[in-house]
Amino acid sequence: MRVMSPMGQPPGHDIETESAGPRRAWRKWPRRKYRAWRTTTYDLATRWYRAYFLEAILRQKPLKPSKDGRHVPLRLDHRGQPLIDSRRGHPYISNAIRTSRYTVYDFVPKQLIFQFTRLSNAYFLAIGIPQTIPGLSTTGNYTTIIPLLFFVLLTILKEGYDDYKRHRLDKLENANVTTVLRSAAALGTTAPRPAKWAWLWPWRSRKSQIRTYNAEPGSNDEHGEYGWAQIEWRDVEVGDIVRLCRDEAVPADIVLLHATGENGIAYIDTMDLDGETNLKSRESLPDFKDCDTITGLTSTVAEFVVEDPNPDLYHFDGRVAINGKTLPLTSNEIIYRGSNIRNTNFAIGIVINTGEECKIRMNANQHPDAKKPALEAMANKIVLTLVFYVIVLTAGCSAGYVMWRWATERNAWYIANATVGLKEIIIGYAIQYNNIVPLSLYVTLELTRIGQMLLLNGDIEMYDEVTDTPARCNTNTILENLGQVSYVFSDKTGTLTDNIMKFRKMSIAGTSWLHETDLAEDQDIKIQNVQSTATRTLTPSKSEGASSAIYEDIELFSLVSPTTAVFPPRRRSSQWRSSGRPNNVQPDVTTSDLLEYIRLRPTSYFATRAKDYILCLALCHTCLPEIKDGRLEYQSSSPDELALVQAARELGYSVTHRSSQSVAIHVSAEDAVDTINTYQILDVIEFSSKRKRMSIIVRYPDGRICLICKGADSAIMPRLKLAGLAKEKATEVRKSADLEREMARRSEQLEVRNSFGGRPSFTLRRSFAANRDSLDPNQLAIRPVLERSRSVEPSRSRFSEDKARPSLNIRTASLDVVKTLSHPSPNRAPSPAQTKFSFLEGSSIMDEATVFNRCFRHLDEFATEGLRTLLVARKFVPEAEYTAWKKIYHHATTSLIDRQDKIEEAGEQIEQTLDLVGATAIEDKLQVGVPETIDKLRRANIKIWMLTGDKRETAINIAHSARICRPGSDIFILDSAKGDLEGQIRDATEDLRSGTVHSVVVIDGQTLASVEKSPVLVDLFYTLIPTVDSVICCRASPAQKSIIVKAIRQRVPEALTLAIGDGANDLAMISASHVGVGISGKEGLQAARVADYAIAQFRFLQRLLLVHGRWNYVRTGKFILATFWKEMFIYLPTAMYQRYNGYTGTSLYESYSLTVLNILFTSLCVLNMGIWEQDLRAETLLAVPELYVHGQRNRELNFPRFIRWITAAVIDGTLVWVLIWLGYNVFGQPRDNGLFAFGDLAFSIAILWTNWKLFIVETHYKMAIVIGSFGITVAGWWAWQAFLSGIYTLQPSPYAGRGGFVNTFGRDALWWSLLFGVLLVLISVDIAFKFAKRNLVVYGLWRWPPWRRAASKDADDDDDGGGGPENCENWDRQIWQELEQDPAIREHLRQTLLDEQQGRPGTVGDGGDDADLERRIGGI
Length: 1420
Description:
Blueprint: H1 20-57, E1 70-74, E2 84-85, E3 90-91, H2 107-116, H3 119-131, H4 145-174, E4 177-183, H5 184-187, E5 211-212, E6 226-232, E7 241-245, E8 253-259, E9 265-269, H6 271-274, E10 280-283, H7 294-299, E11 302-306, E12 318-322, E13 325-329, E14 334-335, E15 340-342, E16 346-353, H8 359-362, H9 375-407, H10 422-432, H11 440-457, E17 472-473, E18 485-490, E19 497-508, E20 511-514, H12 517-521, H13 523-537, H14 591-600, H15 605-619, E21 624-628, E22 631-635, H16 639-650, E23 653-658, E24 662-667, E25 675-685, E26 693-699, E27 705-711, H17 713-716, H18 723-749, E28 763-765, H19 813-821, H20 832-836, H21 848-864, E29 868-877, H22 879-893, H23 899-910, E30 915-926, H24 930-939, E31 943-947, H25 952-961, E32 970-974, H26 981-993, E33 999-1004, H27 1005-1012, H28 1015-1024, E34 1030-1034, H29 1038-1051, E35 1056-1061, H30 1067-1072, E36 1075-1079, H31 1085-1090, E37 1093-1095, H32 1100-1137, H33 1151-1155, H34 1157-1161, H35 1164-1172, H36 1178-1183, H37 1189-1192, H38 1199-1226, H39 1235-1257, H40 1264-1287, H41 1300-1303, H42 1309-1338, H43 1349-1355, ...
Parallel strand pairs: 18-31, 18-35, 31-34, 32-33, 33-34, 35-36, 36-37
Antiparallel strand pairs: 1-11, 2-3, 4-6, 4-7, 5-6, 7-16, 8-14, 8-16, 9-10, 9-15, 11-12, 12-13, 17-37, 19-20, 19-30, 21-22, 23-24, 24-25, 25-26, 26-27, 27-29, 28-38, 29-30
Helix pairs in contact: 2-4, 3-4, 3-10, 9-10, 11-32, 11-35, 15-16, 18-21, 22-23, 24-32, 26-28, 32-35, 32-38, 32-39, 35-39, 35-40, 38-39, 38-42, 39-40, 39-42
């Protein structure tokens, strides 16, 4: 039986057990020592390179920090010359940016170094150079060096073309136009464009083009000496004054001087910088109030002193001297490059950082190195092994020649003077056998990768019809890396989410309501589209054959399938389903029912509470209504606020006008006249990350003053009128949640786990009782496919600022409805409306304790579904109280010292004794299929981490909805603000050692920065995170994202990393990972351009990895093994023949056939395998994602597997040589006993057996092109024989080929008998081996290499007949290939995949069909 850890984990999952730890540590000790030595050597070489080459020779010394910061004057009369950088002594750098890897100068030398540092190219160069010396080579002088140089040239040209595309994108960005202030003299001249080839001469000065900017008619922004001009971004300089209009991108880092917003506020979008969708406000200093016109700018004299360029996005230090006083500059006045101006007509700023010194560029991974495939390391080991074999073979043949010379040559008078020097013999043999390490491998490998790339680009299943975007491969050299990924680092905004916020649920007076108005509008259209798609893609083949019933055209993540109607609906309103908890039952009532109740009972207590709730949503915000194209739209700095205001409009309360003094609400009524009420805005206390709430004070039309406050529950609850009662109920809810969470954890611990700690799709039990010919169906256990539990989250994740509230799983409003409906009034039959809303007439909705309890339960339920929750409260303020408070608030807002702190203190005074109005839940809509994809990737033993710039609460909510946080996950929050960061990390490590089902670490950018400052914390933290299942890094800068990816690459070198994102802020981590994927949908064009692969939706990642990744890894691995096998097999008879030619180096095969061997006769067999091979169907790989571990565990290409293939080549080659030697020269009497006939027989057998084995035996997916290629190759070989028979000239030669095939040995029955006899022997040996292996696999006795069987038992199940469960990832591939041939099993896998797509419980293991399924599997 499997040895399980105390927490239900198999040994070796995440944290090593005490018994297994020392043994595994001892096995890993040499590898760790090697990695440490390699890291130390690399660091030392890097330091020497910087010290002696970059600094001493190239004089590229690191810049020293400036003494007093960067000085940027605001004086237009001194703008004649560029400003000087005090650190360099030269002008500040250009504003042009470069993401390309090479320049015109360094492209060729860098590529030559890169190409010839590859082991294979260095080997062929070492062989090719001496081969060009006349008299040394027996195979020609240029057969190696010319193909090598041609291949290297093609690779360099391809890399150059890829980099040229990046250069063109840089050129487009640098050519963007912006508006700057220029003198009248500059406006009067337009410099000519530079010459076409001017880019070759960068030292040549290039004058910029200046185009006059026409101000709006009637504006007063005119000046005689200066004017606005349009220039390209590359020409912007430090000190320039730029003018930015609405929705315009910021060309450089600027200090805001003026904005048209109220109080000089400009709203900016920083999604490309930090991934946040909320608009941020930037405010100019009051002293720059006159800088709205050119005249005001010319009259203002100021000097900015700012910090040196650095990558910190969240802090800024500087000062400005103006009007005889010095004012501080903070991030509140700075706008960085990569931002966009929003909701602001125009803004004016002064440039302080340009080009590569901008924050966004300093956070980017600039000029990353070219990526190499992970299989190249294994291929290099194989090459070294074969090089050693070539050396041994060369030494052996050279020694053979020396012995033959002493035994034979010196006694043979006819060759007495023909002695060859030992040096020439050694070099000649080395050249002759160099093809054992085939140069054709690398040429053909490039062709296979091109074919794999075309198949990936043409996959219709990864085509997004909405955006008309197919999948695209930008880097085809690392296609096989897609099949070995162990870590996925994902951005949030635009990658997992759709950048759309929707109001989804509300809690009013202890009742929960579902809001799905936005879903009802287009539901019919979606159903029609999905049904048509499902009908097209899920129709099975009509063929009855096992090999023809293929269901590969499956449309993933359809919203509705043709079979949906047969399932009973969960509830009456079933359009929306939680992505985090898809099986959670939703409330029985919706907001449509709420509006109906308000219409029927407008004066009831609950109707009054509901209208107050909607009114609070319509009033407490900062959204501005606008009329666009005749439609009312809203502009907001926060998508959450926008969702709330839109929900209020859908519920009948529309904001039609808003200014700084008032807001107008249009109230719709079906049975009455619509009314418009105007509310006077008295004060707005803004939201801040410290306050976690936002308040507005308004005067009602009847004169009452009301304060409305919305915010996090931890901020609102202590300020309620009944705060003590609320805290008591919250404690009860927390205890209930803790209990339920512990029960969920224990339930998960009892489940069977696979070899890497996840839930298995299938388990297999073997029986060796009476019948050993088949598996016992009664012992076969097939588990359901990951049936999802109800979500329960740890108490550390939510609920308060210090201790987060646990999630709950308890029905509230729906239960109330059921209870009320089950007890109707006995007096008379109630009407449908009365029955429907009877739960609103009870006294419980007026009991504060009950309302608190239910509301907090609703909050927990909303949170576990991944919704973003807020509490809404209000209170009416007496006039006298407000007047007294207003004086305090006015003093705070006008204070010049600690203004923000005083504003928060004033807000704290009035935000007390609030009445709870209700709770809101907003859905940050995920992209289609995101939770299912993450679930499937986790089952594929891939760890999913989320690195985002958003807030912690937002990131955790999305982690719940996207299922990054599993039910029962242990969430460990590391926060430097709480102090003792080292203790927090050690506590988390200890908790992990005690055992956990699924662990998640949450850390923010500030805490990560604190970790990076301490070597002790760095070691602790980066030792901790590889042992957890997921990491959520919030408020992370692009540079920090890259640091985490690089840390995992360093700490877990055997794991391959993949980073996926959609924006410019994700470029650093995309380039730092082994594989970079860009989302090319709505927002992700920046990442898609430079990433290795581009897809339109996150859901396509599962097919990219599980299907194409697996296929490409298998294809490339088999291609490499097959290439080495055929070279060893073909050249072994030549080595054996040397004994019979005096070790003179004479080849067994004639030269023409050798020349075209790898071009005409053995190229298609490996090309077809490398391009079209599919070891398993796409349907199987998607339904059973555990099969992905095949690549993670390097099962396709490893050293034992290589030894097995080479051993087979040696056996096959030896058999061929021995059999034809005995049959042709010992026992037979051939008609043609010449070398050509004998060698041609061996060569024909080698060609036919190579193609038969690789085309027919080793290729599993035998499509028409494979069979056709086999026929073409075989027919081509015999045509080549006839061709040779005709072109050879009649002259004395060892290779007498003229007429041989047609007239002599071609008519010899012995020649043909040996040909087919030897082939029959080879086929029989191969069949016998595969039959024996198949039986060993079925009985679980196959382990290769045999000495690893004991080690396998430590991690896998016992195979000694005990009947222990074996998980599907450990099944041999041959089992799955046989399973796929059974139509019933194939249909079962197909149905399982469809159930997962629809979010229904898995059907595997359920129903009467499983008995038949088990019998079929047991019959293998």
